[in-house]
Amino acid sequence: MRASTRTEKIWWTVITVLVLLYALFPVASIFATSFKTPSDLTSGKFLPTNWTGQNYEQILVGSAQDLFLPALRNSIGITVIATFIAVVLATLCAYAIARLNFPGKKLILTTALAVSIFPVISIVTPLFNLWRNIGLYDTWIGLIIPYLSLTLPISIWTLAAFFRQIPWELEQAAQVDGATSWQAFRKAIVPLAAPGVFTTAIIAFFIAWNDFVYGISLTSTEAARPVPAALAFFTGASQFQSPTGAISAAAIIVTIPIVLLVLFFQRQIVSGLTQGAVKG
Amino acid sequence: MSSTTANRRGAHAAEKRPKQVHSDRVKAERRLGWYLAGPAFIVMLAVTLYPILQAFVESLFSLRLTAPDESQFIWFGNYITILTDVVWWRDLGVTLLITVITVAVELVLGFALALVMHKALKSVRGLLRTAILVPYGIITVVSAYAWFYAFDINSGYINSWFGWLPFISEDTNWFAGTWTALFVIMASEIWKTTPFISLLLLAGLAQVPGELTEAAEVDGATWWERMRRVIIPNMKAAIMVAVLFRALDAFRIFDNVFIMTNGEYGTEVLSLLAYRTSITRLEIGLGSAISVLLFICVLLIAFIAIKLFKVDLSGNTGDK
User: Fold this and answer.
1) pLDDT tens digits, one per residue of B103-138
2) Which of A16-25, B7-16, B254-263 has the least mean pLDDT?
3) Mutate to test the interface with B, among A40, A100, A110, A187 (most CBs of B within 10 A)
4) For chain A, which residues make up each domain, given as ranges?
5) B86-119 vs A6-34: helix axis angle to the nearest 10?
6) Distance of CA B244 to the CA centre of its chain
7) pLDDT digit string, tens, across residues A5-63
8) For residue B31, what are the CA distances in angstroms to A45, A108, A170?
9) What letter does residue B73 receive in the DSSP assignment?
10) A112, A181, A255: residue with CB nearest B3
11) Using the beta-carbon criterion (under 8 Å), do A269 and B275 form an inter-chain contact?
């Protein structure tokens, strides 16, 4: 590596600022909107004239809380469960793919690929009809099942890529040193595999958290409707008031977990996404 | 996850064994393999293959949920209705337009971002990657609202910021015209999904052997020559995979259009047409036919990409 010169440093500062602007400007934009008063919304300015927390108040404790809080609960519950199931199934599957020799490995990986490019809307129509007939319409389970079509394929690919890099000989080495096979697995393999599983869980969480098509199509009430779908049905405090402020505030709240995960696990997420791509 | 005698041996050793000989150990390993991988495989089939078959069956009926008893088997009547309707072709056109433009812009932008991340000084690398991941992780609907409110004639500030441009004034209504609305829809789509493509390209960049670029540099190749002759040819596979993945993803665009225009003013895309037909109008027969057609479109795109451009999706995924 060459020592960075002065001009180089200036260039990198400019580039960094540009990238930051690109990545964060729309977030800053809706963040600013979420602090505007109703009369301020039409000001034509980026920043609020008076910063106010009334939009957050409205959705968290005020008139719109019945629209937002159940949706938030649904989103968290459904996403966490769907992520958990996907990661457990994918861990078993990827372990077998990376470690065992059996016919059909390629078939499984190809299926995962095919499922991941499947148009979501093509699944929605038949499920909509089926769910109404068997009573899964507007329930948590009715969303968790189709969410697996989003989270499972990428989990399998990412984890298979991770597991292929684990030096499995360590397990044998530990056994030679006198560990039982369970001890060897737990002490030598689990610490190496855990980061991959964790990273996969974050990526699967992002994808399930992002869902909109299933959310609006397979739910009808606050019993199961997740936040992205609920946002589309937000109404203003009165019929003369636009829901802009409330939607912006809700949008910022559901973005917080994303930003936190990204802040803390940036390195893992990038390696998870790029490894899945290279090895896949 | 038990570690039996069977699987303790590396896969490499087992691979070299002749196929005909199935010792107990090999059989046990195969069985265990399917026990572990089977559930995921079955779930994947259950959540996609089953629905699409069901959709195909229902697409042959004139089924409406408003009058379920009048359902009749009409062969491919629904497909004829759709394919002779100008709406399908218009929506297909809009969808393809969005796909081509967004993927083209994202490829250039994503490549630039990948280069920046690849070359970045250590001190800013983490910051850049963190920033890039924000659009990747953000909910598409949130992105749609962010862009919508920025451009909206009531709550927006874009009109007053760019009022000095000849074609923008205080009362430019971006969402009342096809092209202006599509512009904002595509902007939001590009913003949200470029990080994904740039991460795929970053993975490709990392695979280009450093000696090659250094050798070219020593030989006096300019930056542009190194790009065109060394780097891009060496990451062609990564570029193809990224483009195909994004193209198939863009073809499914729904969220941004639904939030910003709900398909008004000639901005309707195919996913929205399917949604409107099945979920809003409860015409399950017609809606299923659109779903099947959409599925066929995706298959066609994937097939063309793989056959024509030789995109190798399962490159080094084989039994390793």
Assistant:
1) 999 999 999 999 888 888 777 888 888 899 999 999
2) B7-16
3) A100
4) 64-279
5) 140
6) 8
7) 788 888 888 989 999 999 999 999 999 999 888 888 888 888 888 888 888 888 888 77
8) 65, 15, 24
9) B
10) A181
11) no
SS (H, E, C) B11-37: HHHHHCCCCCCCCHHHHHHHHHHHHHH
CB contact (8 A) between residue A232 and residue B258:
yes
Contact A217, A128 (CB under 8 A): yes
Helix (H) or strand (E) holding A11: helix A6-34
- Structure confidence at residue A277 (pLDDT): 61
Could you tell me the two tokens for B83?
A: 């394919």
Site from B9, B111, B121 to mutate, A interface, most A CB atoms within 10 angstroms? B121
pTM value is 0.88
User: Cα–Cα distance between B136 and B133 in angstroms, integer?
Assistant: 5
Torsion of CA B265, B287, B192, A94, to 10 degrees: -170
Supply φ then ψ for residue B61, to 5 degrees. -115, 150
Mapping DSSP to helix (H, G, I), strand (E, B) and coil, where does residue B61 land?
strand
Is residue B74 classed as helix, strand or coil in its secondary structure? Answer: coil
CATH number (1.10.10.10, 1.10.3720.10, 1.25.40.10, 1.10.10.410) of B86-308 reads 1.10.3720.10
Sketch the domain layout of chain B as residue ranges: 5-58, 86-308
Distance from the Cα of residue A256 to its chain's centroid: 12
Whole-angstrom Cα Rg for chain A: 23
CB A178: neighbour CB atoms within 10 A?
8
Amino acid identity of residue A135, one-letter, is: G
Taking Cα atoms as reference points, which of B258, B281, B261, B284 lies closest to residue B271? B258
| CATH number for the domain running over A64-279 | 1.10.3720.10
CA atoms within a 13 Å half-sphere pointing along the CA-CB vector of B209: 4
Rounded to the nearest 5 degrees, what angle is found at the Cα of A122, between the Cα atoms of B271 and A107?
130
Give the type of residue at B1: M
Contact criterion met (CB < 8 Å) for A95 and B36: yes
Phi-psi domain of B177 (left: phi exceeds 0; alpha: psi -120 through 50; beta: other): beta
The DSSP secondary structure of A222-250, one letter per residue, reads: TTT--HHHHHHT---SSTTS-SHHHHHHH
Element (H, E) at B195: helix B178-207
- Report how far apart the first and last C-alpha atoms of chain B are (Å, whole number): 21
The whole-angstrom distance between B203's CA and the closest CA on chain A is 5
Tell me the percentage of chain A whose pLDDT exceeds 70.
94
When the pLDDT of each residue in chain A is averaged and rounded to a whole number, the result is 86
The average pLDDT across A122-129 equals 89
CA-only gyration radius of chain B, Å: 25
